[in-house]
Amino acid sequence: LSSNLFFCNYSLRADSKIFEKYAPNFHIGKLTGIDITNEAAGQLSSPDMKKKLVNEAWYPGDNCNLAIGQGYTVVTPMQMLSWVTAIANNGEYIEPKVAEAVLDEDKGVEEEFGRTVENNLGISEENLKIVREGMHQGVQVGANGIGGTGGYLKGSGDLSSKTGTAEATVKKDGVWVRDTHAWVVGFFPYDKPKYSFVLFLEGGGVGGNDAAPIMRKFIDWFIDYEKLSFEQ
């Protein structure tokens, strides 16, 4: 069961500028600010961008593609992780960091990098709660139940997740062919989120069947290794 139909139907009734309104809050098309080099900013599909890239008009179908992350939208795994973390944190967009502190062998901690809240997503608490509940139910009743492919993640931990399958054109052996990238993002535990995750498989198939089982095995291992315990 795909959620694409819902979001596509919504997009056909909405103004495409609603995406442009909230995109800055999600830092779409911007660097996340993570403390590593060579980060890519990605881009958000829009009428102006389509005109610039292919010199074509914007059609209703483009709204549909925009709503499900297709079309000319390009994002990085770190951006996806930052967004799902913000959803888990009730709308707080936190600047991601690799380094926690700078240590000196003799002096100890020289500099600590604290938690930096860049902004709020600007989405109501009620709507964020609906999103979190949807991600949670997608895992808890998905796959073998009445829900979607998030059920392939059901295992250790009280997970909330969203899978995705992105269609793309890639070059293989000198020939451009259609392919799919597999995505899965999420957070846990549901009631008091502490961890968020993302897995991107370039040309790796589909989110539910391919990415989710791999992520589930890693999370099961992580919970066991860290000796974590969550009520479900």
UniProtKB/TrEMBL annotation:
Per the record, a Pfam family?
Answer: Transpeptidase
Question: Could you name the domain of life of the organism this protein comes from?
Answer: Bacteria
A Gene Ontology biological process term: cell wall organization
Q: Which residues form the Penicillin-binding protein transpeptidase domain?
A: 2-219
- Write the protein's name: Penicillin-binding protein transpeptidase domain-containing protein
- Classification of source organism: Bacteria, Candidatus Dojkabacteria
A Gene Ontology cellular-component term: plasma membrane
A GO molecular-function descriptor? penicillin binding
